[in-house]
Amino acid sequence: MPAAFAHGWAVVILPAVIWVGLLLLPWRPWSTRERLETDPQAALATDLSEITVLIPARNEAETIGTTLAALQTQGNGLQVVVVDDQSNDATASIAAAYPNTRVVSGQPLPEGWAGKLWALEQGKSHVDTPMILLLDADIQLHPGLLSALLAFKRREERHFVSLMADLRRTSFWDRLLLPTFVYYFKLLYPFALSNSHHRYVAAAAGGCVLVDTEVLQRIGAFASLRDALIDDCTLARQVKNAGYRTWLGLSRSVVSLRPYGSLASIHDMVARSAFTQLGYSTWLLLAVTMIFGVAYGGPFALLSLPLAWPWALIAWAAMTLSYLPILRYYHMSPLWALLLPLSAAFYLGMTWSSAIRYWRGVRSRWKGRVYSP
């Protein structure tokens, strides 16, 4: 009886232990302290001739113009290379209209390469500057952002710095799920650990990365990770393993132009790499399912038990507190934190959807390309 009683209380307090423990972690994965914002005053006066912007673009006619126009406001001497990755829209002609912009016609995708990495591999041969800014074709930089990023890189003596873009929130689904995407990314790859000297955690946000050209060359550039679907974190890990220093932060001055708006579009974005994050492991998928069930479902299940409800409230309060920094950073109402369990349910469902796709023979699907297991 005492053993059964002890096991019962262990179940009761477990959700509270999970969430309070998360708040007490010394590396504070829920925090937004790693951030970098724009410096508009320094924009036009900054010499950016040491940087070439490398942009892989596949059917990005809707956004590439805005992306390139924003680069024109960043400073002096900036060169841009756009790799048109077999687009069948006006991407190439729009890009060619901008000054200091070279458009490279991408070759067909070889076997064993991911599309974005193949485009970057082709573009790097057109770069002769000490630094490269890897920029997605749907990312808009606010004036002064690149000068601030360059100054930070030099001040902190980093070889590789990246910023996670502010994802557009124009619908209920965007507001429910996109801040949660950043929240989970930070839990999975704690920025403080990734930015430290330790090599066991390495992460990056591939939409905006400023890196030394020599570092890319020494690690084999993009050929060394040619089939990686989570290419940003894989690249950061290779840079770190080679003995170089990386840094990852948030920024509201790096804005994603890609519209989501619907549950289906967010599902496609998450499902294309969620099971990849788990290493295609069914056991890890089951473990994540169990953890989500205990962490998010546990407090609700315990509310109806006479002696357990205080623990349920502690768990729920700690869960809410862990999400508030992200909501504050993106200027959202704290009431969205009450819907975190609902967001979690959708993310768990999208992860299972990603796994089912894989079991059916689709490793990932993006931009009209299907990658098989």
Automatic annotation (TrEMBL):
InterPro entries, A to Z: Glyco_trans_2_hopen-assoc_HpnB (IPR017832), Nucleotide-diphossugar_trans (IPR029044)
Superkingdom of origin: Bacteria
PANTHER family (alphabetical): GLYCOSYLTRANSFERASE (PTHR43646), SLR1566 PROTEIN (PTHR43646:SF3)
A Pfam family that the UniProt record links to this protein: Glyco_tranf_2_3
Membrane-spanning parts: 6-25, 282-302, 308-326, 338-359
Keyword DNA-binding in annotation: no
Keywords, in A-Z order: Membrane, Transferase, Transmembrane, Transmembrane helix
GO terms of molecular function: transferase activity
Protein's recorded name: Hopene-associated glycosyltransferase HpnB
NCBIfam families, per database record: HpnB
UniProt key word Cell division: no
SUPFAM superfamilies for this protein: Nucleotide-diphospho-sugar transferases
